[in-house]
Records
---
Amino acid sequence: MKRSRIPLLTTLALLLFFYVPIIVLVIDSFNGSRFAGTWGGFSVKWYAKLLQEREIWQAVRNSMVVAVAATFCSTVIGTCAAFALHSFDTRLQRVHNMLIYTPLVVPEILMGISLLLLFIGLKIPLGLFTVFLAHVTFCISYVAMVVLARLQDFDFTLVEAAQDLGASNWICLRRIVLPLLAPGILAGALLAFTLSLDDFVITFFVAGPGATTLPVLVYSMIKHGATPVINALSTLLLAVTFAVVVIAQRLAQEKHT
Amino acid sequence: MNDFLEFKNVSKRFGTVQAVDNVSFSVKRGEFFSLLGPSGCGKTTLLRLMAGFEQPDNGSILLDGQDITQIPPNQRAVNTVFQNYALFPHLTVRENIAFGLRVARRPRQEIDAAVTEMLKLIQMEDKADQRPNQISGGQKQRVAIVRALINRPRVLLLDEPLAALDLKLRQRMLLELDLIHDQVGITFLYVTHDQGEAMSLSDRIAVMQGGKIEQIGIPAEVYEAPKTSFVASFIGDTNFVDGTVTALPMPNYCRVRVEGLGEILCYNDKQKAVGDRVNLSLRPEKFHVTLEQPQEDARLNVLRGKVENIIYAGNHTRFWVHIGERRIATYHQHRRYHLDEKPIRWEDEVWVWWDADSGYMLDDYAPLLEERGITPPPETIHSANGKEQRI
């Protein structure tokens, strides 16, 4: 029997649609010519040039500092929030849940403006600190949602079993609850990290002078005409992201077996 | 020696549900004590109160004379085997068993020795480094038991530990549990809804219903001398017969007129007087069903009936016999069986007879069972006059 080719073709079309732009970008980063249209031979000169771009490395540093700090804080607060939402059953529960959801659905531009107004109102000078605060604000929601989903499947008789065997609350948390929730918490943290790393809209509003993060810098560079250096930078970022995803999946699999 | 573990007037309410209602009982040292009852009777709540997961609203729990009511679960010298085992999925079998000792910060050699000994006890040395999801249900069960035993608890609490196993495995684990209890000599508090488990394992059983204990006794006591109609119907099958005392023909015996059945003789241990109402539990296996008339005996009840239903089951036959307006369920063990013997068939007129000592007077009145909101198990044969009969 002849099988239909439609599923195969659809899959191929979809994959092309997703990945052609990225492939083009990667190839272009090795293009010796300054212009994307013409092939000027294989070259790593854009990578060499990238190394000398101090402005870019400053932005990378800013982005990393913010992302790491925001991920850490939002993971801790978000996990605690998930625990609180899961274990307390009050009449305010719906309101609490809604408040956690809200940052996920509010348009980013609105978040950006409101945070800007808040910081100005409180007379907090705009800079890396405000970017960090803004990122923590929206990352908490994502972490809390991911961890909450894990908690809903969590078997709390395990906690009772540990207490029954003499474990204090602290040991119970460290030896039983956290190890079992680690994949969920890690997934939340990774999500927070990537969201923080590539956030543009909110950052654009609350970043002061000298606090330029990578997405904001790339945007301003593109405005002045695209340079192949950005292709090189993007390719590097892509490689790092890919590595992180692979490692995360490995970790998740190990937990399951 | 007596009253090692004591519950004194313990009550616990969840919202509008009175889960445990002023319960008092005591367990002896080394005893295998079962809490038996249908789901929702409060048996699991009692166990959780004992483990410390719940706090009683009233009353106190004493262990070896010491009030442990306020002690948190991680400081009580009791350990629990959970219904779903609650093994830690991220730890190996060895680490699961060692958990209690590691938390107690025992020296490494001591932990290793104890764990090895426990693994040997349950014959699972070869599975020591596997995770809980790599071993079978019966093995999980055994790991859960020794994990709870390793801290040498003063009382081991078991919450329906066999409920999740299939029949064959359940029967094997039943024997193993009994063996473990004999070996370790720890007091066991066992919660179950399965009368078979409770009867075969326990030194004593407390039958529970609606947050209260209906009766405490050794297995034979709760079976042969049930206090209430609930106990009589929950443990085994029975026929309820109710009537009025008409005469006291000899010491310790009374004649009871049962509407729709006739006059029967009954052992009168409750010292009933003429005119009193009585409610009897007559177990099916106490009856004889024969085609020939039995020899006269002053203490024998002999009635005439018609066979309505027969279920042959190899080692025994069940007869349902219509007598007057009642239906009596009987159980005949085939101690000898001759193929050439004339068998009893449907619609046969038979003699139904039993010893007057075999019936047992209950403290309450059977038809009240349903008024109290208790549905008897479907196996119960309710022969109260004019009522729907269940088989």
---
Amino acid sequence: MTPPYYFGTIAALSEALSVGKVSSLQLMREVIARTREVEPRVGAFNSFDELDALAQASASDLRRTEGRTLGLLDGIPIGLKDVIAVEGQPLTASSRMLANFVSPYDATVTRKLKAAGAICWGRLNLDEFAMGSSTENSAFKPTRNPYNLECVPGGSSGGSAAALAAGCAIATLGSDTGGSIRQPASFCNVVGLKPTYGLVSRYGLVAYASSLDQIGPMTRTLEDAAIVLGVIAGHDRNDSTSYPAQIPDYRSAMTTVRGPWRIGIPKEYFGEGLDPEVESAVQAAIAHYRTLGCEIRTVSLPHTQYGIAAYYIIATAECSSNLARFDGVRYGHRSSEARDVNELYFKSRAEGFGQEVKRRIVLGTYVLSSGYYDAYYLRAQKVRALIRNDFLAAYRDVDAILTPVAPTPAFRHGAKKDPLELYLNDIYTIGVNLAGLPAVSIPCGFTRAGLPMGLQLIGQPFREAELLAIGRAYEREHPWAERHPSL
Amino acid sequence: MSSEPNINIEHIATLARIALTDDEKRIFASQLGDVLAYIEKLREVDVSGVEPMAHAFPVFNVWIEDVSGPALPVEAVLRNAPASRDNMISVPKVVE
Amino acid sequence: MQYEAVIGLEVHVQIRTESKIFARVRTGYGFEPNTLTDPVVLALPGVLPVMNKAALDAVIKAGLMLGCRIAPVCKWDRKNYFYPDSPKNYQISQYDQPICSGGSVEIELPGTARNLMGEHKRIPLTRIHLEEDVGKLNHAAGDSLIDFNRAGTPLMEIVSEPAMHTPDEAFAYLTALRTVMIYAGISDCDMEKGQLRCDANISIRPKGEQKLGTKVELKNLNSISFVRDGIGHEIKRQIALLSSGGKISQETRDYDGMTGTSQSLRSKEMAHDYRYFPDPDLMPVKVDDAWKDLLQAECPELPFEKQRRFFEQYRLPYTITSVLIPDRGLCDYFEKAVGHAGEGRAQPVGNWIVNDLLREMNVQKQSLAESRVRPEHIAELVKLIDEGTLLSNLAKDVFVEMAATGMRPAPIIDARGLKATTSVDELEQWCREAIQSNAKSLADFKAGKDSAINAFKGPVMKAAKGKANPKLVDETLRRLLAQI
């Protein structure tokens, strides 16, 4: 491979590291220099700790010289969304509430990355508490799309997508509750994988909606996604919802699983509101699969139209409870105005949370409040079951489902102000979270205006290897991610 | 689910312990009204006989045996605390 | 008008486990503040609960012992409310699917006298569920200080039906419940340490009326006698209020045991709405027969069942069982001693335990485990007395030495030369001498005054240095007198 290394893939860089073509310290220095250069324009980082990263890089180089290299990720800088705990580092969730919070513990994924030798690099910006799809809801600053600084990078993992696209990390981790990995991946021309619910431990992930949240990799290629997933996946005793699944070697499995596959196209995902450029890019991908000999089948997911309503009930209800701990008592922002504990709650939370977070807490509190539980939460959970059943029924006939990721490419900053309008944008990604399925967003071209677009492949539970293999069949011949932004 | 969702924003904000300004109350009430009106869609769905889905992949009896591990040192407990005294978290007087 | 009180109790029992219910840090009382916490207990951002199997075992055991139905499947719910002692501002609890439902607690009401057994009855239970304890707030002059050591301790809430009518019943209920919990090793139930806490729901209604009156919740009944006093006080307050034309308002009152008064608490949640919903972080619990059977096998005999068995098997009087039964260890000790002494000697064994052993333990401030008197020692003592080797008037001293030294009684008796005289010749000789040296009493006896025999006994005992068996002395004297 050739410089600049900061646009390299894990696969290529680990090879370069192993043959001594580059050292981890050199790579880290390059990434730091790149970050210093572009970060003022992109705004992907809430913070980064250069000395800590360089120390981790030196330690990796030392391991390598002593023949104790820990694996493919050893010495590779991986950025973490600022909702994933790293011991001794800030954990802000891009909220004023946690502006000064330093985590005393590692998330399970952090522990696993460290055990694999990866350099945990930077705290990446997001919509406050992962609530949003534009990273405009960060309490600190909006992140900009490296392909067009006037546009949003998507969200909520906008910092993770933008940092990767801008060459400020080799891979990043995001979290996905209703599309928060996949949508920014599609807006920023990177791969974003939301694993099956329960495959990756949530321990140490600041919870938004517990029954929907999953951590996943954002990478330049599907192969890299497989490498990172292989490290972070697996049963964790600290997360009761972590599933005791067998973890294959995703990287080798994705090359051995072979098609042709039966690919489902859900008619409900290609209706009104879908941008024509996005639609034609996705159609082109479908055509590609057809030329590969895949059977393309129209399938129906009849409850799709209820997904957003069910999602916003379940997610806000859970968030209203999950975010109750942010009260200014044990940690976090405390109002200086409070004369008693009740005032402390009211004022600290009013001052510490942004508008969207307050809005969702209020909605969630309302749907759980006395007399409404059955009508809202319970009903939403039943609709959720129906949505999952739709997918499971479709999988009797197809191996994977192909859809757009988002109805439009990245929109301009400040373009979408109405909350409901923003919520409706999650239409293609939300069903996956409700059903607990794995899905990946893969770059599928650029608009005439030069904005990236993505396609979504939705797989069957715990069959990420197959999902990645199907994606690889497209990516191999359409390596859109090799096109970098000019910053 | 009432056919005309009417959110008592004051009461809900009290339950959620968030002080809202009058402007926020007005804006939230109208925005949440829109969202709730949208959510009314769910009433169309026939959910009779459907088991609510609480977990994507439920597993029973996920537990750990009764063994204790290390405690967090008290300095670490207090490091992020806005106020503390005598190794305890201090809060303004609790009014019963 | 005659009123009847209706009382239901909500009892919280801390389960004795090594680690907390959803975190792997140890539980404990009396530790330095905030030294028993971890990220999960403190509800730091990102942490998740994982349940502790031992807490489930304990609550299922409690349910089995109290005859509850054990739910085949149950789940966890979040009870949402803000309070500074609650780190997450929600409590993980069980709302509509408690792990145990139904069942009852057998109680004994006070007897008409201390040595008479009182009436037994069963107080039905509504449910038992599992939840987590909160931290502790210490109110200072200018602020409140929070210690989270207690937070996350497994807690079971035992809810009775409103089926009690007097403070005595409530007292008996709590006593019985506590004994069962201690028997099963579920909790030490030390109210001073907050291991057992009790709230009471109290209402009154005209006697004969079926409809329940407005209930008042009485909190902070933090000793068993406060429960009795507090409830008594509240019943009187309600009757006085109704009799004077007042109205009972549904409220929560705080009882102050020191002053014997109560006052209304302003609602701690401004608007009570707990917004229960299933906790998405925890998986449901399934209890199958195999698990239940395993726990059933670990359940000890219930206290009152043991008492009935002691009546039948050992013919023990109520006065002994009423001391033994509340202490399972003491019962086991008793049965071990009886095993060595033989069932026929159960009653004297029981007497030695409830009188002398407990007295010595009390004097030495020892627990049963610390006492140096072993069950086989008591058995031996009782046997020696029974066989006439040791005279009961000397036995108390022997016991004191047993307790002090941990020695068996026989060597003590030997060392101190306390063995009762068993030589018939020697005894006959002393008896002859006593008769010969007291002609007046001999004449009296022969004239039919039976009590005159006692005049000979003193000199005999004196000659025997107190070590003669009085029964034997009496027999020998009568035999010799008859020959004269």
